[in-house]
Write a structure and sequence with these properties.
Blueprint lengths: L9 E4 L3 E2 L11 E6 L4 E8 L8 E6 L2 E4 L3 E6 L16 E4 L9 E3 L16 E6 L4 E8 L6 E4 L6 E3 L3 E6 L4 H19 L16 H12 L8 H4 L7 E5 L2 E9 L6 E5 L6 H17 L3 H4 L6 H13 L15 E7 L2 E7 L7 E2 L5 H19 L2 E5 L7 E2 L2 E11 L4 E8 L4 E8 L1 H4 L4 H11 L2 H4 L3 H4 L3 H6 L3
Parallel strand pairs: 1-8
Antiparallel strand pairs: 1-9, 2-7, 3-4, 3-7, 4-5, 5-6, 10-11, 10-14, 11-12, 12-13, 15-16, 16-17, 18-19, 19-20, 21-23, 22-23, 23-24, 24-25
Helix pairs in contact: 2-4, 6-7
Length: 478
Amino acid sequence: MFKVDYKKLILSFNEFHDLSDKDMPQYGEYCLLELKTGDYTAGGWLPSGNGSAAAGEFLRGTADTVDSEEVARWHSLDRYDLTEILKDEEIDWINLGPEEEGSRNVQFKEFKSFADRKNPKQEQFCLLIMKDGGLAAGRWNKWRDEAGGAFIYSSALASHSWYKVWAWTPLSSDKFFAMEVERENEKKRERKLNKNPSADPELFKYGTDINVYYEKALEKLREEFYWATLPMMRKKTPVWQIARLHGKYVFGQISKNYYDDSDIVTPWTEGTTADEFIDFLCRYTHDTVEHSNPEEKFKFGTDITVYLEKAFNNVKKDYRWLDKKMLGKAWQYDIQRVDGDLEFVRRYRTEGEYSVYDVESAERFIESVEYDYQSAALQANKTVASYAPSFGHISLHGWNLERYVFYKLQSGDYKVSVTAGDRVAGGSREFFITPYCFEAKTYEEFLDRYLEIVPDYSFGLGRKELLPDKELKKFLGY
């Protein structure tokens, strides 16, 4: 590895070029830039037009560019490899280009290293010495969920990861860094204000425990819904809390900022008194409590096997090959108390964790189990043949139809798989073609029934495309 002491190192840039028609960087060349303001930044050159004039922009990142009109001079970063010279431990000054009399040079020093657990500030644009001996630059972006980060230097978040950087030093501040500094300062001011928040006596006349307000709302809800409980009310999310905002207590909902995991408080603004907030809580949770009636939810009792048997029998009507051995790898279901209330839950057989089915009726829970059983049945039924209808370009609500395949199953039944996507994402769905469709006497009647399951307006192919397809007709047994 390099032996130079980066803490003492000075880089002197001596080969600046005026931004003129006769002296331009190569297309895409990454350059150190001296702006007309005297500040320093960097970017990759993107000329405009035919590239013959000194017009264009230097790209620093997604939606982050420097117009050529702002640039006084440029100095290449791409044309240097410092590998050999950085191996000399005696070196503390490196000239990039000949240091000629009368030419203006610029020095950068006070380099830092990630090896010393030093990070740039968020959004700080920095000059980089890479571990491969090259020079680069980029805007620091800390990784959200793990240690480290990367220096973004081009569009589509193209970046230099921290572990590829040997040493770095900040370049001049810019509007993006200034915005980040102001945001951090605002967070500090907010934390200071919120150390001793005030409480409006009319708004918080019952104190600053949110449970008190939920309980008072619960008393009112029970006048209409005798089964109401606090856990039912809190199913309506996001729940309300008493938070600190701008030096005051407020009723608010708290979410997390995606970029730095800080709290975002959205305050309640529909009233000015405690009793108005309690009435609001009643309205806010009304529908959730109304649809949590345990008599509707557990109308077949509290033995989970009753619900599972109903789901199994319903699926068995169409998925005739289904048997209970196929369900061994499916989700496991139960009825148990969660925060004091009975709930339908499911968990995987190898895990202790569970998730709650937020359903309002026994029928909705049974439908959910049916969907799981249908998926398990299709997975257990191997395909023995396939047919893919031909189609041209088909756009589906911004996605493009990529794949549409009919499969014959080992049991003699059929399913269809549809895939759609765009340039960066995609998804697939499978549909079982029910026996009801094949009870049709003609292929035309079959298509009418089939397109109720896989409608053309949602999945791309309709009667116009499928009716003339003789190979598909034969594949399906007509």
